[in-house]
Amino acid sequence: MSNTLLAGGQACALPARIPAVPIRGRAEVFPVHRIYCVGRNFAEHAKEMGAAPSKPSEPPVFFMKPADAVVGDGTTIPYPRGTSELHHEVELVVALGEGSDGVVAASDALELVFGYSVGLDLTRRDLQARAKARGLPWDVAKGFDRSAPLAPIVPVTDCGHPVDAVISLRVNDRSVQSAPLAQMIFNVADVLHELSRLYDLRAGDLIFMGTPAGVGPLHPGDRYHAEVSGLATLDGAIGT
Questions:
Q1: What total number of domains does the chain contain?
Q2: Alpha carbon separation from 121 to 58, 92, 96, 142 (Å, rounded)
Q3: More confident residue, 2 or 236
């Protein structure tokens, strides 16, 4: 595959670069198609952000990150420009191995899942707050370079569906976020069903499932350790 760029009035071919994530225990990698994120999926996090928690009777809140926002385990991420308030949000991540052109029933949705991982939804919180105050979109607060650190994906054939696991984050060896996945307002099947009402799901899609309470700042030099118990771990640091 290739794309083209006009240079000096002539088209020149550029190689296509598809973002990819390692698969634990395999030589193959997982090519990323899109990154979807679920907002307000833990009630206590919604409250700490001054928002009402999502209601199970209403659709989830969705936003997106670019596919090439992913960075791997062990990465030192440069402190992003344009912000002085970078925040961590630890999340369960779902990786789809199959897609669908239509609406997927919740009862069938887990058949699309290839595997699971743990990641961070890094957020430029000051830019988000500024946009919210003005009633503007806050894409720049979420969809920036290297804003989606992600551990290798664990195939569902190896881990099953982590319903009873605990998700947690430590920063500089201090516990800052921890909650059972059972506290999610919308489970994986619910989220995939609702997403499929809006988008054609595709193999390679990643879904960040929302974060528990305890979000807070990351500073240059900080180290983080994210985990979904019994499933995956992610380590990294913030550079200068």
A1: 1
A2: 23, 10, 18, 7
A3: 236
3-class SS letters over 143-181: CCCCCEEECCEEEHHHHCCCCCCEEEEEECCEEEEEEEH
Q: DSSP code of 204? A: T
Q: What is the pLDDT of residue 2?
A: 43
- d(CA 40, CA 63) in angstroms, rounded, equals 11
Instruction: Report the alpha-carbon distance of residue 116 to residue 161 in Å, rounded.
Output: 8
Q: Helix, strand or coil for residue 79?
A: coil
Give domain status of residue 11, yes or no. no
- Backbone phi, psi, residue 125, to 5°: -65, -35
For residue 88, the domain's CATH number is 3.90.850.10
Using CA atoms, how far apart are residues 36 and 66, in angstroms rounded to an integer? 9
Nearest to 122 by CA among 20, 239, 211, 18: 211
Q: Which distant-in-sequence residues (6+ apart) come within 8 Å of 28 by Cβ?
A: none
Please report whether residue 133 resides in a domain.
yes
In terms of residue numbers, what domain contains 146? 19-238
Query: Is pLDDT at 196 greater than 60 in this prediction?
Result: yes
Asked if pLDDT for residue 54 goes beyond 80, the answer is no
CA distance 14 to 190: 39
Q: Span 164-174, mean pLDDT?
A: 97
Residue closest to 93 by CA, chosen among 213, 204, 218: 204
Would the pLDDT of 84 be above 50? yes
Is 10 a domain residue? no
Query: Which residue, 161, 184, 179, 36, is CA-closest to 109?
Result: 161
Mean pLDDT of 64-70: 98
| Structural domain contains residue 5 | no
